[in-house]
Amino acid sequence: MENQDEIDREHLPAPKESSTDKFAWKSIGKSLISGILVALLIVLAKASAEQASLYQGFQKAAYEWLQARLSAPHRRDELPVMIVDIRELEYKTIEVEGEKYSLTPREKLIPLIEAVAAQEPKVIAVDVDFSPHKIGFLDPTDPIHFQNLAKLKVPVFLGIFRSRNRPRELWLGNPQFASLAANVANPDDNRRMFEWTSGADGRTELTMCKALANAFPEEKKLNSYFSWAVQQVSETQTEDGRKAGGFLVDFSPLEALKDTRLKTIDPAVIKDQGWTLLDKAVLIGDGSLYDARDSVIIPVQGQTKPVPGVYLHAAAAYTLIKSPIYEFTGLARFLLDFVLALVVLIAVFIVRIRLDKSRLSFAQTRTTYLFIVIVTIVVIILGVVFVHKTRVLWDDFAFVILGLWFHPPVESLLSPTKKLLKAVWKAFGAFFVDDSRRLI
Fold it and tell me: Of 81, 372, 374, 436, whose Cβ has the fewest other Cβ atoms within 10 Å?
């Protein structure tokens, strides 16, 4: 009889899941889906706000903070770029048809360039605007000097600015000098420099920092598998609306560039100090730290005064030669923002399931904020680690953190809206039902 009872019990149907369990799982599922939708909404809102001035201001502040985490060179042999400061070379002002132009005296500048070339650097660039004026060459002797510089054994590049909107063949007034010309224009955003610019015909044109970098073998880049996620050069626009390739600049060598610069306009001094220029990329220009003719604000912590533009070009060349900085692509930023929000949601979801099984009440808001704090700490650490280990500069991590902290209040604010949408949807569905023909 006992055996028969055991057999009967084996064939009894399993107990059905209680309605309370079904309700709990349904509630958890709805909460997870709602959280995902809110996270997606916040990420989309962040993406749409990226052009706002407030967002860009915080992004620049994060950039400056991360810049301070970069390893700076301290020795001369760690610098591939050297500056020859020619501030003492007084320029002259000439007037052509009512327009004034600054002219650097060629009788002093050209012997200096030739003296630098004799020290066997890898390349020479001159941060002076050699663009012709609206009638012809800025100096009548320029064609002769250009021909002589083109014959030197060391590649020489002469800066142009006024003529940058002309075809490159006319940057220095004559197509035969086109190979000497390099664009010295820089973006309004001084975190960046141009690796290339495009002409009116769409052709890629040479910039000064790229001209210097081309003399060195290319450093090892990030694996091509990550090209969808990170990039060094991104397409942007110049002030006149043309396309250009912009990249983030590593300003960590700024102090070393100032300390090691060679201040002279005397070819004899260049000869005496020639060992400092051997196998270097030499940039000749106005390096005065107080009253440079052209100066820019460098976005570096503690740097409150403008610095000469020659340092911007030198730091940009250093970045391309030795210290590339990468940034996340738009797609990677979107995925990273969304995944971090999803990590918080999944962690909360797991805790809620475990507590639900033990029949304990769940403090969702408190738990959510706990995981947000944890993810915030992790994001800050990752922001610094990315710069040190991979040289990926994550300059909007502060907004990612802000988005995480906005998640709970946004979800609370949208709760009445969800109820309203549900009621509207129910009413919309009822419109298609014919109550008079409902089956009984």
Answer: 436
| d(C-alpha 96, C-alpha 406), whole Å | 61
Q: Which of the pair, 197 or 427, is modelled with greater confidence? A: 197
- Structure confidence at residue 207 as a pLDDT band (50, 70, 90): very high
Domain annotation covers residue 140: yes
103-118 pLDDT tens trace? 999 999 999 999 999 9
pTM (predicted TM-score): 0.80
For residue 6, being part of any structural domain is answered with no
Whether residue 47 is found in the same domain as residue 92: no
Residue-number span of the structural domain to which 32 is assigned:
19-64+329-423
Number of domains present in the structure of the chain: 2
pLDDT of residue 439 exceeding 50, the answer is no
CA-CA distance, 35 to 352, in Å (whole number)?
14
228 and 371 in a single domain? The answer is no
* Among the listed residues 73, 109, 130, the one whose alpha carbon sits nearest the alpha carbon of residue 315: 73
DSSP 292-306: -SSEE----TT--S-
For residue 279, being part of any structural domain is answered with yes
Q: How far apart are CA 173 and CA 139, in angstroms?
A: 11
Query: Both tokens of residue 185?
Result: 């224009």
Q: Which residues contact 61 (CB under 8 A, 6 or more apart)?
A: 398
Q: Token pair of 429, please?
A: 């569905």
Residue 24 burial by Cβ neighbours in a 10 Å radius (0-12, 13-18, 19+): middle
- Which tokens go with 35? 């959280």
Q: Which is it for strands 230-231 and 262-263: parallel, antiparallel or unpaired?
A: unpaired
Q: Does 10 map to a domain?
A: no
